[in-house]
Amino acid sequence: MASTLTERLSRLVKTVRGQARITESNVQDMLREVRMALLEADVALPVVRDFIQRVKDKALGQEVVGSLNPGQVLVSIVHKELAATMGEGVADLNLAAQPPAIILMAGLQGAGKTTTTAKLAKHLIEKRKKKVLTVSADVYRPAAIEQLKTVTAQAGAEWFASTPDQKPRDIALAALDWAKRHYFDVLLVDTAGRLAIDEALMAEIRDLHATLRPVETLFVVDAMQGQDAINTARAFKEALPLTGIVLTKLDGDARGGAALSVRQVTGAPIKFAGVSEKIDGLEVFDADRHAGRVLG
Ligand code: GDP
User: Fold this and answer.
1) Predicted ipTM?
2) I need a surface site. Which of 176, 199, 208, 222 has the fewest CB within 10 A?
3) 234 C-alpha to center of ligand 1: Å?
4) Is the CB of 91 under 6 A from ligand 1?
5) What is stated as this protein's family in its record (predicted)?
6) What are the beta bridge partners of residue 282?
7) Any alpha helices (H) in 60-112, and if so which ranges?
8) pTM of the predicted protein model
9) Strand order in the sheet with 101-106
10) What is the number of the ligand 1 atom nearest to the C-alpha of 111?
C-alpha cells in the first residue's frame, strides 16, 4: 500500500524542522512528492504541471503556523487548492428555461449515461418536485433504449418510446413535442455513445444540441477512465458547450484525479458524483471531500 502524501511529506520534514519559513528548495522537494501523488491519482500530466505551479506560488514564503510542520502546511495548501479548483461553479441543475427544461446527456459508451439519466430523473422528482420525461436517442443499440425504459420506471419518471429506425433528431423533436403537450417540467435526453471518440458521433450530438438547445449539457465521465479522461473531455468540450460534469463510478477504486483533469479542460462545474449502480447512487459533488480522496 502506497504511503499517503502526508506521510511522504513528513519524511522530508526532518530536514526543514526548526525553520520559520518553507524555503524554495524545501518546497521543490515537497512539490515533487505532491506531483507523484497527483499522477498516481490519475490526474493528467499537463493538469498536474499547472496545478503544481499554482501551489508553488501559494506555498513559497508561507509561515509555518504554530505546531504544524511544513509538510502539513503544504498538504493543507494543496488540499485547499484542489477543492477550490474542483469546486468552482454552480452545483445543482439549471432549470431556468421555458418548460420543458431540456437536459442533454453526453459521454462515451459505458460511462454511465443511461444510469445517470435515471438517477437525475429521480433526483429531479424527489428534490425539485418536477414532472420528468426521459427519451433515448441511441438508435444503434436497441438494448440501450430498453435499458432506459427499465431504469426510468425505477426512477418513477415517464419514458418516451423510440426505435432504432428513427433519426436521433426526429426522436428528440417528437419527445419535445410530447413533453410540451403533456406539461413536463424536464426532458432528459440520453444519447448514443461510442467506445472511442469518433467524428460521426460528435456530428450527431452537435446536431442534437442545435436542434434542442438544452439548458444543461452534461458530460458523463467514468472516474475509472483515469489519464484518458482528459482526451475524452477535450473532444466533448470542442463539440459541445458543456454546462456540467457527472463523474461516475466513484464507488470504485479510482482515486478520482480525473475530476481535476476534466474540470480544468472543460471549465464546466462538476455537479454530481455516481456512487453505485443503483438508482439512488447519485450525490451532489463534494469538492472538499473529493480533494481528500485524490490526495490519499
Ligand atoms: P452508458 O453506456 O454511458 O449509457 O452507460 P450505462 O449507464 O449503461 O452504465 C454502464 C455500466 O456502468 C452499467 O453496468 C452501470 O450499472 C454502471 N454504472 C453507471 N454508473 C455507475 C456508478 O456510479 N457506480 C457503479 N459502480 N457503476 C455504475
Assistant:
1) 0.99
2) 199
3) 21
4) no
5) Belongs to the GTP-binding SRP family. SRP54 subfamily.
6) 274
7) 70-87
8) 0.93
9) 158-160, 132-136, 186-190, 101-106, 216-222, 244-248, 270-274, 282-284
10) 3
pLDDT digits (tens, 9 = 90+) for 167-188: 999 999 999 999 999 999 999 9
- Residue of 108, 115, 117 to mutate, ligand 1, most atoms within 8 A of C-beta: 115
Strand partners, 290: none
pLDDT in tens, 102-141: 999 999 999 999 999 999 999 999 999 999 999 999 999 9
Q: How far is the CA of 110 from the centre of ligand 1 (A)?
A: 6
HSE of 229 in the Cβ direction (CA atoms, 13 Å)? 33
In which band, very low, low, confident or very high, does the pLDDT at 5 lie, cut at 50, 70 and 90?
confident
Q: In this structure, what DSSP letter does residue 226 have?
A: G
8 Å CB contact between 208 and 113: no
- The CA-based angle 135-173-205, given to 5 degrees, is 70
Distance (Å) of CA 177 to CA 4, 81, 102, 124, 191: 54, 45, 12, 20, 18
> In Å, how far are 31, 78, 206, 228, 263 from 167, measured between CA atoms?
52, 48, 14, 30, 32
